[in-house]
Specification:
Number of strands: 5
Protein name: Helix-turn-helix domain-containing protein
Number of domains: 1
Strand order of the largest sheet: 1-3-2
Shape: globular
CATH topology: Arc Repressor Mutant, subunit A
Oligomer: single chain
Helix content: 40-55%
Order of helices and strands: HHEHHEEEEH
Number of helices: 5
CATH class: Mainly Alpha
CATH superfamily: Winged helix-like DNA-binding domain superfamily/Winged helix DNA-binding domain
Organism: Halocatena marina
Distance between the termini: 19 Å
């Protein structure tokens, strides 16, 4: 299963970002997730097998480029949707010739922060 998405304070490594962005399937997922989508929706629009999709979502999650949003299904259970979780990725080189990565994130709304808190509480029960 996909690892919990990182908070905006987490800093993925340069290599995690490069690995995710170097993958054609990951790039296809990122193009489609401007709005939250379920795994089944992503399988259909990206034409990726289910097992591959979850591996790619894990890669994107480790790089903090997508985040999971769980909602309650009125018919029971939870629905997980995946959404792109960055506005911009900047890779630069400093004066010491060291590469750095900066991931700019969209501002979080109060309801999103509250939903994350509730989701984490539910996981601990």
């Amino acid at each position: 299963m996909v690892r919990d998405s990182a908070s905006s304070e987490d800093s993925p490594s340069l290599q995690e970002i490069l690995d995710a962005l170097d993958d054609a399937d990951c790039r296809a997922i990122l193009r489609e997730t401007t709005e939250p989508m379920t795994a089944n929706e992503l399988i259909d629009v990206c034409d990726i097998p289910k097992s591959t999709l979850y591996r790619k979502l894990d890669l994107l999650s480790r790089a903090s480029l997508v985040r999971e949003q769980d909602t309650i299904n009125p018919r029971g259970g939870r629905i997980t949707r995946y959404e792109r979780h960055f506005d911009d990725v900047l890779i630069s080189m400093d004066e010491a010739d060291t590469f750095t990565v900066t991931v700019e994130r969209p501002p979080r709304k109060a309801d999103e922060r509250l939903a994350d808190i509730w989701s984490k509480m539910g996981d601990e029960l």
